[in-house]
Design a protein that fits this description.
- By secondary structure, this protein is mainly alpha-helical.
- The chain has one domain (about 10-110, about 120-140).
- The chain is about 45% helix and about 5% strand.
- The protein is built from 3 helices and 2 strands.
- Strands 1-2 form a two-stranded parallel sheet.
- It starts with 8 loop residues before the first strand and ends with a helix.
- This is ALP1 protein.
Amino acid sequence: MGKAQKYVLLGDATYPLQDWILKPYQEDENLTQRQLQFNYRLKRAHSVIENAFLRLKARWQILLKCNDCSLELLPTLVLACCILHNICEAHDNPFNEEWLEGTEPTELPKPCQPAPAAMEDNRAEQVRELMCQYFESCGEG
């Protein structure tokens, strides 16, 4: 789209719109088709991410348990699991569906109330608009 973008996290409507947190447009009857498509794609991406984390935790169940390694080592442990998981996925290493039995998707704590408008970043709307344009140019999918 002609503008370099950094990585963003996906959030739901309760999070403030920031240039590093993408959130859907508020659902109402005034949304344009492009905004509806943006919300749809954001929900699809969120679903893919949830599934990826579920498979990661199922394959590397050490991530589900209390661990007595030092806090300094913990990020390395998580990163190692992520790298090994990606290698397994890239090489079509069989995923045993039985592994999922002990890994129920959990709702992570998130804000109960929408963030106040004062927390919104005006520049973030430009990022969201660029994403809308990008999704529109990609067509259906």
